[in-house]
Amino acid sequence: MRNHILTILTLLTLSIGLSQEEVTNTNSFTLQEAIDFALKNNYSAINADRDLIDARKQKWETIATGLPQITGAIGYQNQLKQPVSLLPAAAFDNTQSTIDVVNDYFDATQTNFDINTPDGFIPIVFGTQHSATATATLRQQIFDGSYIVGVQATKAFLSYSQNNKEKTSLEVRKAVTEAYGNVLLAEESVSIFEKNKANLEKNLFETTKIYENGLGDEESVEQLQITLSSVDNQLKNAVRLKDITLQMLNLVMGIAIDAPTQLEENLDDLAQNQIDFGLIESDFNLENNVDFKLAMNLNEQRYFEHKLAKSKALPTLNAFINYGTSGFGNEFDFFSSNQQWFDSSVLGFDLSIPIFSSGRRSASTARAKIALEKAKTQLSEAEEQIRLQLESSRSNYILAIEQYETAKSNLNLAERIETKNQIKYAEGLASSFELRQAQTQLYDAQQTYLQSMVEVINKKTELETILNNKS
User: Fold this and answer.
1) Mean pLDDT of residues grouped by 10 in the chain (471 residues)?
2) What is the spatial distance between Cα 166 and Cα 226, in angstroms, rounded to a whole number?
3) What structural domains and CATH numbers belong to the chain?
């Protein structure tokens, strides 16, 4: 019995250990791990992959339209009431044999008719009541200018889908970085507010005791109560924001928003690692920028649209060969071995030559050319905008680093000032108002410092997105 219990406990321990390892592997991330995970699981990234696969299928769909096409058809007809045709009686001889045949037909159909009447007609039913056909047709496109242009355009469309996927990946990377930094910011804010609240509660307790013993004034107690209430509200808000920012990170990463995600990075260390002055001076290759690539794709698209419009003036030539078989009978007996089938086959060509369109084709070609010229202008504009964005991003990144260094220095000063005022207040050399002013200044410096670290992380990501260096 004891051995059974030990075995069960061992299995439970292993199970818990494996479960904890799975949670750690799945839900504990560094920033780079979070980015890599999101690139595979983010909803937009998944659909971008699907769009790329769809583009490849669409490319083959376009190519396949110019390859041999085989279609089959099976038909069946049952003429419930067969149509009657009238043949002039004068076209037949009036021999007795003909008269007997016709009269037999009249007797069978109960029709009153006199074949000897020169102006009369003979009712005749052609064909059988049942008929069936089976055909197979092979078609081959020989020449079509629009097909040639379409095949050429598939390469440009596939390039657009690849560039669009790349843009989505960059956007996901940027979104994960911002969300990751916001979570760290919220966690640090909670930690700082808890520390500030604990210090204020201690100050308030001591000041209240001093006031109750008649050695202090009521205003000092009230000043601390005001500050404590403000910090307490900020702490509650920071706790709520911590949960929300974590849910936002989960959403960007493509996992359930309530998943127990943990972050392995520290905000201060992460900000320090994001300071890279070499990035500011790095070479910029415009052709690496994904927005420029997409603008080039637009130009290619407009070029092929113009080329397609011009190809509409060219003739088209197609060939086909058909083979079929037909069966007939007054009874439905097509599956019988005695059924007779009649084969047929046709070989042909279709040549379509555009002759006159009342100016429609020329107007369409002119509009396509205008669209191409507009795309060229938009490409030039995009190039200048990207260069401006680069300079702006470099400047913003430098500013973020400078503000981070300044905020870090100001925080140290604010901490020293607050500590001095704490000592002065305890010794009666500073008023409660001066202490509260120093505390408020410290709290502002703390939040500015936290925000400056997040700005360094985000501004570097923006610059890297524009540079998009592959190395």
Assistant:
1) 39 38 61 93 93 92 92 92 78 57 55 50 80 95 92 92 94 94 93 89 81 75 85 92 93 91 91 90 91 94 93 93 92 85 94 90 93 94 95 95 94 92 80 83 93 95 89 48
2) 52
3) 28-65+144-314+358-467 (1.20.1600.10)
